[in-house]
Amino acid sequence: MTSGELLSIEVTGEGDVFTLRQRARVVADAAGLDQQDQVRLATALSEVGREVLTQAGGARIAFSIDGSLRVRVRGYGPLSPAAPGFAAAARLVDEVSHEGEDVILSKGLPPGRYTGDWLRNLRALLAGLAKPSPLDELRAQNQELMAALEDVQSQRDELEETNRGVMALYTQLSEELERTNQGVVALYAELEDKSAQLREASEAKSRFLANVSHELRAPASSILGLARMLLELGEPLDDEKRRQAELIRESGRDLLNLVNELLDLAKAESGRIEPEVVDVSLRGLLRRLKETLRPMAREGVTLVVDDPDGVEILQTDELMLTRVLRNLLTNGLKFTERGEVRVGAHADGDHVLLRVSDTGIGISDEEIERIFEEFHQVRGPIQASVTGTGLGLPYARSLVAILGGEMSVRSVVGEGTVFEVRLPRLDRIRLGRVVIADDDAAFRTMLRGLLHGVAEEIEDAADGYAALAAVRRARPDLLLLDLRMPGLTGEEVIRELRADPDLAATRVIVVTSTDTDGIDGVALDKSRLTRGELLRAVGEIGKRDA
Ligand SMILES: Nc1ncnc2c1ncn2[C@@H]1O[C@H](COP(=O)(O)OP(=O)(O)OP(=O)(O)O)[C@@H](O)[C@H]1O
Ligand SMILES: [Mg+2]
């Protein structure tokens, strides 16, 4: 026996397998393994014992402990560790490995206690054990089996209890979810109501603005004209009267400007202005802005124009874009007392990002959404000293929407403000064939105009049947579809397309003046369709399909 070795058993017959099994259990118990691990080890060794008898006519099996428990199996003849007995044992111990011809089983032990004394005592205990009779061993195995069965039963009970708990939780959760859902549905209904009311109110407001400003323009122009006449024609005025007439003229001019601004805003908000998309040189546009706005800068404030980065030409409405940037830059210059106001443009994939930043007074979180409301101005010491009506930002935002873009702002009070305008690069949008289905020939022509430079080929269809036929024949990248048409309605055309596997994927944008609730897909309102909006919709379905 080598040092650390506990015992060795020559397995030459069935009886030795029982002994092996019993000793294994005793060693496992003494080494502090729990009941289940004791049974595992005993079973593993009884499998190994049977295997060595059939395979090699027997073996010497030695137990030793150093950190872990190692059982060395040296067969009387060659041993194949792939045999079923070893395979079964491998599932019950930590590892089955080789050392030369020997097969080694190892099993980790709880830490501590394996001192020289302890080993000596265990050796003595093992040496004193009698060989078990098959009957004893059977009894021991039965006990193990019963214990295992009890274990399984109690685990099953536990599992059942857990399941019951989980089910109860699940029922409770789904009830709660249902209640929440009902709440959400009700909330949505309310929201929809509210947003319909809001939409109406906002349309009424735009109409009112448009009408009032239109009506105000005539008298304001008259005042201006009359004041000019007083000053330039007729009797020369004495100094005091001239001063007063000049004041009338100045006020008239301010009034007319304000009225014009209101009218512009009303038009932009109602979407009644069409962008005129042309090739715009961003570099040129920014430089011109710098020239006209530089005089506005206070002392100690620089207006910096960065050269565009990665994009030179942008297809957009030059006048609208200029107005947007002028509004943002004017604001920056008004609300910055030192540092710089900076503007630049850079390519951002299929978009251009225009950024106007300043090192000015900043805008607080509470105010930041309100600044887009008409006439809203943040109260503060600077505000009193600068001119403005609070229409610049709502106007700029409406224009950006017409151009198919988005405007965002972030700001830190005392540090400055950054406005960003994201505009689509319309030249990046390319369509091959497009079918325009509408019974109104004038509107078809208008749509053709909007798609100029974007679509390679455009086909017209004057009713629903013609639309279907055109799609079948031309397999377009896009179908622009009216809803109210003779023959088949737009809804019926969509249904036919979706039912045909070859045509089901056809991209459709509904363009109509009828109610589009319940239309599945992108729908645009005929009465306020702009190129920007149409191209934005094209981009949107492109994104959706991607
Ligand atoms: N860059 C900025 N820094 C700090 N505050 C700003 C900035 N831009 C806008 N604001 C705040 O938002 C308000 C609304 O801006 P907006 O451009 O709509 O109106 P305005 O400049 O006051 O008048 P208008 O543009 O009609 O001449 C401003 O009055 C100001 O309080
Ligand atoms: Mg402004």
UniProtKB/TrEMBL annotation:
Residues 433-546 form the Response regulatory domain. It holds the Pfam family HATPase_c. Its EC number is 2.7.13.3. The keyword Glycoprotein does not apply. The modification 4-aspartylphosphate is found at D482. Keywords: Coiled coil, Kinase, Phosphoprotein, Transferase, Two-component regulatory system. One of its GO terms (cellular component) is plasma membrane. GO terms for molecular function: phosphorelay sensor kinase activity. Residues 211-427 form the Histidine kinase domain. Residues 135-204 form a coiled coil. It comes from the Bacteria. This is histidine kinase. It comes from Herbidospora galbida. The lineage of its organism: Bacteria, Bacillati, Actinomycetota, Actinomycetes, Streptosporangiales.
